[in-house]
Amino acid sequence: MNRFSIVKLVPKAVVLPMLIALSFTLQSCYYDVEEELYQNTPCVTENVTFSQTIQPVFKRNCVVCHTGAAGNGGIDLASYAGASVVAKNGRLVGAVLHASGFTPMPQGASQLPACTINQIKAWVEAGAPNN
Ligand code: HEC
């Protein structure tokens, strides 16, 4: 084997493992919130809690307009106390379902995913507990 064939061989031996390693690295950066990628993923509506399920939804989609006593429509979704009021008077479910007679929420954005709506309904039907 002369000097030139070694030079030609080395890149192949090095580049291939590097590509494989790189593809794994890129995969780990892949956006993979399962629920948002695959709408067919079974929707879990058991063990829905205010702190783990409902509050994060409000934080992402609602508190920008509904925080404190001055929240839009006088509705405060940043606290359990405020959220439980609209949960128990039926306005929360009506609004996220876009049911007639209610102002559709979140205002100015697309309707929440069906699974999220079902989780809100499950929490409300369980009596909107502070869990
Ligand atoms: C861009 C601002 C904005 C966002 C975001 C928003 N709301 Fe509202 N919301 C309002 C306004 C303004 C009203 C009062 C509308 C009215 O009285 O007709 C309101 C009213 C409501 C009502 C009362 C509806 C009724 O018919 O009585 C509920 C319940 C509600 N919002 C829940 C939510 C929930 C839950 C989210 C998040 C998923 C959300 N809102 C996101 C602005 C917003």
UniProtKB/TrEMBL annotation:
The keyword Iron applies. Gene3D superfamilies: Cytochrome c-like domain. Residues 1-28 form the signal peptide. Residues 49-128 form the Cytochrome c domain. One of its GO terms (molecular function) is metal ion binding. Keywords: Heme, Iron, Metal-binding, Signal. It comes from the Bacteria. The keyword RNA-binding does not apply. This is Cytochrome c.
